[in-house]
Structure formats: C-alpha cells, structure tokens
C-alpha cells in the first residue's frame, strides 16, 4: 500500500513565503479546489491518502514535503529554513511516526524537503536560501549507518532543488539544466524541460504514472513521447506560492 500524507490549504495561504517569484494575489478557494483535485489524483492512483486538517496560523503548511523526507529505513524530520514554517514539524511528526522510525535535523542546521532528492542510496541536497551546509553534515551523520551518501548540489534562480530536477523513474530525471548542473547526475537519462517552461522540472511518480501539471504542455509531450502515463493536475494557483506537485504530499511505500 502506498500512503500519501497531505494537508489542506491554510486560510492564510496568501501570507505564504515567497523567494524567487513575484508575489501575486492567490484565490484561496481556487487553491483549495486544486488541492482537492490533487488529492483525488493520488487516490485514483491507488494511494491511501491521509488528509491532515488545515493549519490556520501556518500559511505554507499545505506543502508537507518540506517538513520530512521518507527513506526505506527511516523518516527524516527536517528543520525548515523559514522560521514561519518551523512549527509545522509537530503535526507531521505525529502523522509520519506510525510508518517509520524518526530521525531529526537540529539547530543550527536547516533543510527543506523540497531541497532533498533521493536517488537510490545517494541523497542530493540543494544548497539554497532554505537549506544550509550544516544540514549536509548532519544528514550524513544520521544516515550513513543505513548506507546513504549525502551530496550537496548548487543551483540558481529557483527556490528548491526539486524545482530544478526530479525523479521520473529509477534511471530517468526531469531537469532544467539552467538551474542545476547535469554534471551531478552522470549515468542518468536526462529529459530537459522545454525552453519555454523553466518551472516544468517538477513531477511526481506514483504507482507507475506521473502526476504532472497542465501548465507545461510542451514538456509533458516529451514525457508522453517516452511512453510515460501522465495523470494531469491543475496547480497554477498553488504555484503562486512557489509550490509544485511534489510539494503537496509525503509518499510512503
């Protein structure tokens, strides 16, 4: 059984943290409707969805991916880089703890789950405004016992590493080479986003299909040409808060 942990959109979603895009007004009701459709997509792909209630005082809390990342052996509870997001860890810890033993990132380290790309036994961590070098050292110390190697990755012009590159399958990545160097990912088959769609590198593989935004038809065509089955979702209102399809769930297999 694949479990997907999600959380409803906060009524204060308009107060979300913005770093690399211009702030524009968000229609919270549209964002909620898009999130409900996203949850339905997860369920339609066979996920048992655990829906957490909205956190009224935590504007970014719909983006549960940033608060943890899930490995086969343990779940890592992060320490988010934005102070406004640090209180999100309590409820995510409670939601994840029945499924995995937990390890915790502690001060002075900060890391957002959106900066963490797990590829087999290699974990890439984006060095961003939210994730610092101290986190790399901590994660290596915490996870080396399980055979993981943690590598820092530099990127530019985007909030998180997974804005620039995500996993399509065990051998294939979707990447914006202008935002992260492909040199980090030698040995992988790289699908480049269409030049007109710089934010198109974020996809979510679930149970043999790819959850993917309707906003990027040209890059989607590249995925479909490779034979990938696409589950389309509309998340453009959520994207106004620098969110994407990986951001809104924690997938536990």
Explain this structure to me?
The protein is α/β, with parallel strands linked by helices and 253 residues long. The chain has helices spanning 28-44, 89-96, 133-143, 161-164, 217-225, 236-239; strands at residues 2-7, 47-52, 68-70, 75-77, 102-104, 116-119, 122-127, 149-154, 165-169, 172-175, 189-192, 204-206, 209-213, 230-233, 250-252. The protein has one domain (2-252): L-arginine/glycine Amidinotransferase, Chain A. It has a three-stranded mixed beta sheet with strand order 2-1-15, sandwiched between helices. Strands 3-4-5 form a three-stranded mixed beta sheet, with helices on one face. Helix 5 (217-225) links the parallel strand 13 (209-213) and strand 14 (230-233). The longest helix is centred in the N-terminal third of the chain and has 17 residues, at 28-44.
Features:
253 residues; alpha/beta; L-arginine/glycine Amidinotransferase, Chain A; three-stranded mixed sheet; 15 strands; globular
Q: What strand line-up does the widest sheet have?
A: 2-1-15
Mean pLDDT across the residues is 97
Quickly give the structural class.
Answer: alpha/beta
The CATH topology label is L-arginine/glycine Amidinotransferase, Chain A
> How many extended strands?
15
Q: Give the helix proportion (percent range).
A: 10-25%
CATH level 1 name: Alpha Beta
Order of helices and strands: EHEEEHEEEHEHEEEEEHEHE
From the N-terminal CA to the C-terminal CA, the straight-line distance is 6 Å
Question: Radius of gyration, Cα only, in angstroms?
Answer: 17 Å
Low-confidence stretches: none
CATH superfamily: L-arginine/glycine Amidinotransferase, Chain A
The biggest beta sheet, please?
3 strands, mixed
Shape: globular
Tell me the number of structural domains. 1
**What is the helix tally?**
6
Strand content: 25-35%
CATH architecture: 5-stranded Propeller
């Amino acid at each position: 059984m694949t479990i997907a942990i999600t959380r409803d959109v906060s009524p204060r979603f308009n107060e979300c943290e913005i770093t690399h895009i211009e702030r524009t007004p968000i229609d919270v009701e549209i964002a909620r409707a898009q999130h409900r459709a996203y949850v339905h997509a997860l369920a339609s792909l066979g996920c048992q969805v655990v829906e957490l209630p909205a956190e009224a005082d935590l504007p970014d809390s719909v983006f549960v991916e940033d608060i943890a990342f899930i490995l086969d052996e343990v779940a890592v509870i992060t320490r988010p880089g934005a102070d406004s997001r640090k209180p999100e860890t309590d409820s995510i810890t409670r939601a994840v703890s029945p499924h995995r033993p937990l390890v915790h990132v502690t001060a002075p380290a900060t890391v957002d789950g959106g900066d963490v790309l797990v590829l087999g036994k290699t974990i890439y961590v984006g060095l961003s405004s939210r994730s610092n070098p101290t986190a790399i050292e901590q994660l290596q110390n915490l996870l080396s016992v399980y055979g993981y190697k943690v590598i820092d990755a530099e990127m530019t012009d985007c909030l998180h590493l997974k804005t620039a590159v995500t996993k399509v399958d065990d051998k294939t990545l979707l990447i914006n080479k202008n935002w992260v160097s492909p040199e980090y990912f030698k040995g992988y088959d790289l699908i480049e986003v269409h030049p007109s769609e710089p934010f198109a590198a974020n996809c979510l593989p679930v149970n043999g299909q790819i959850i993917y935004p309707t906003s990027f038809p040209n890059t989607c065509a590249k995925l479909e040409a490779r034979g990938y089955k696409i589950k389309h979702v509309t998340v453009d209102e959520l994207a106004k808060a620098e969110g994407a399809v990986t951001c809104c769930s924690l997938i536990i297999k």
